[in-house]
Amino acid sequence: MSNLPDGVSELDFSAALEQFRATVEAQWVFYNDEDVALYRDDYSPLKDQPAERLASAAVAPSNVEEVQAVVRIANRYRIPLYAISTGRNLGYGGAAPAMTGSVVLDLKRMNRILAIDEDRITCRT
What we know:
The chain is built from 3 helices and 6 strands. It is an alpha/beta fold.
């Protein structure tokens, strides 16, 4: 694997992927080149350059408990996470992580709003 997070061995990364698959179901853990390519920034001036920021994998949890489990696994193996959702405003950036090797925490399956706090400008999903 070419985009491993800094300081994470291939053995540890494989163990983390296995635990991610057990947590969110295997179909929601993306790690092959074709799937991870979906998390590139097509508008990046660094595209196809050595400095381009690339994800190592992506995980798409469906609920809070799965997010918490993914965060615990990533923490255990010192894997950086980069959270995204399904926003469509590319002016704020794409799905590419801020640091090469990060695992993208794709929140696209968490599409239910539980509460909106207009005073704090937040929502709970």
